[in-house]
Design goal:
Layout lengths: L1 H14 L27 H33 L3 H25 L6 H6 L1 H6 L1 H14 L4 H20 L12
Helix pairs in contact: 2-6, 3-6
Length: about 170
């Protein structure tokens, strides 16, 4: 196994390319790839673009909700229905904001996430707002990925430092 790795490293040196580093690789993030690891490769520009895109999506979503509310007013459904729709969207958006904000910092429970899918769809404005606010601080889910990557690197270092050679060549006494 080590002979193959040495061959690849020699081949990479001859071709002027870098060899594949040993150990775990960082998981790519949507819109950022693996630039979140060292903040290279136009990372600040990507963060600015993601923030601007999320803010634009929030603005368009507000416009859509306003048009929907005006449609209710034109339909003359009454004050009670209009207030209930506003309360429903506000509540669902607040709950979706909290769920999205939490899922950007730790892995969400898949069963809970699937049960909240309808609420998250109705509260899309809250999800978009959470994504926008998180993108102002870092790439969304960056801290989650960084934590997982660092723990994987530590586990890899612990596993590899214990190896001291070929166990088949050990002398048994």
């Amino acid at each position: 196994m080590s002979d193959k790795r040495d061959e690849r490293n020699e081949h990479a040196e001859r071709n002027g390319t870098q060899a594949t580093p040993a150990g775990p690789r960082p998981e790519p993030i949507r819109f950022f790839g693996t630039t979140w690891l060292n903040h290279d490769g136009n990372y600040p520009a990507r963060r600015a673009a993601v923030s601007a895109g999320a803010l634009a999506a929030v603005a368009v979503s507000c416009l859509v909700l306003r048009l929907a509310y005006e449609g209710l007013q034109l339909a003359a459904v009454g004050g009670f229905v209009s207030i209930m729709v506003v309360i429903m969207f506000a509540t669902c958006s607040a709950l979706a904001f909290g769920h999205t904000w939490g899922s950007l910092t730790k892995r969400p429970d898949p069963a809970r996430h699937s049960s909240l899918r309808g609420l998250l769809t109705i509260g899309f404005l809250g999800s978009l707002t959470a994504y926008f606010l998180r993108s102002l601080r870092e790439a969304p889910t960056e801290s989650l990925h960084r934590e997982e990557y660092e723990s994987a690197r530590k586990q890899y270092a612990r596993r590899t430092e214990k190896r001291t050679g070929n166990p088949a060549k050990r002398h048994r006494t």
